[in-house]
Amino acid sequence: MAVEHNMQSSTIVDVLEKILDKGVVIAGDITVGIADVELLTIKIRLIVASVDKAKEIGMDWWENDPYLSSKGANNKALEEENKMLHERLKTLEEKIETKR
Question: Can you name a GO cellular component term?
Answer without folding.
Answer: gas vesicle
